[in-house]
Amino acid sequence: MTPAMRFLAIVGPTGAGKTTLSLLVARRLGGEIISLDSRQIYRGMDIGTAKVTPAERALVPHHGLDLRNPDQRYSAGEFGRDARRWIDAIERRGRVPVLAGGTGFFLRVLTEPIFREPPMDPVERRALEAVLAGLPRDELERWVHRFDPERAEVAIAGGYQRMLRVLSITILTGHNLSWWHVRHPTEGEAVAGVVCLLEVPRDVLDERIRRRAVEMVEGGLVEEAARLLRDGYRRGDPGMNAVGYREMVDHLAGGVTLREAAERIRVATRRYARRQSTWFRHQLGPGTVRIDGSAALEAQASAVIDAWAA
């Protein structure tokens, strides 16, 4: 028996147009949006994460935003528990859960539940991750390959937070993530849904990312990063190591000019989008509906809505 489809997901790399499309689809279907973005869960990080505006939230209810302060952790397992609760509540209201974002691991914990993390001292973990966050990316990747070769490619594709998780669990428990996945219980039951992947030609995506980096800097990203620093947050905090914020922190510290920081954001975002595209290409199942993200918005929305109705 085919399991009931309980959610509609719109996923894709940064700059693919997920936010605009999900808002239109949710309004057409009478839905509520659950964010699949591991950075938008942080309070005060709005410009650098391209978070939906208060006006957009007034049009469509959103879940999964502003859940933590930038120095607090939020694991994929926690998202899985929260998302199941949000989906249940949205369904009880007779509405459609619309998941939207580019964090593939958040989607996976719903469709393929992960193991429950072993207990770890939170103080030790924060201290360790602060040290690890200061290492160059290529060194982090080298240690991930060494500690957990079986999950290395998936962790690296997931970015800094995934790599820090692999390394922290291995160092603090004595066993790597692959070992725990086999031996620990999962977080919950699998949830089935219709998954739509937005695909955009590389040159089009690169241009969107270039414009996005410029708009963020011109829209107040420097001031947002400065405010976060004044509030006591630091570059190594879980939220602050996101693309955009670490470059702005370096600029504010006098290490690079604003133009250099903006260019670094563009390059880092483009690389991140490449990793996201690779992850989605290799990790999503054969039932994934592929949507032309360069088509007219109305055509995209019709394709997504038709996939949900099928």
Characterization of the model:
This protein is of the alpha/beta class and 310 residues long. The chain has 14 helices and six strands. It has helices at 18-29, 54-59, 76-92, 104-111, 122-133, 137-147, 152-157, 160-173, 177-183, 202-218, 221-230, 245-252, 258-283, 297-309; strands spanning 7-11, 31-35, 62-63, 96-101, 193-199, 289-292. It has a six-stranded parallel sheet with strand order 3-2-4-1-5-6, with helices on both faces. The two termini are 16 Å apart.
Summarize the structure.
The chain has helices at 18-29, 54-59, 76-92, 104-111, 122-133, 137-147, 152-157, 160-173, 177-183, 202-218, 221-230, 245-252, 258-283, 297-309, and strands spanning 7-11, 31-35, 62-63, 96-101, 193-199, 289-292.
Detail the topology: elements first, then pairings.
Elements: E1 7-11, H1 18-29, E2 31-35, H2 54-59, E3 62-63, H3 76-92, E4 96-101, H4 104-111, H5 122-133, H6 137-147, H7 152-157, H8 160-173, H9 177-183, E5 193-199, H10 202-218, H11 221-230, H12 245-252, H13 258-283, E6 289-292, H14 297-309
Parallel strand pairs: 1-4, 1-5, 2-3, 2-4, 5-6
Helix pairs in contact: 1-14, 3-4, 5-8, 6-8, 10-13, 11-12, 12-13
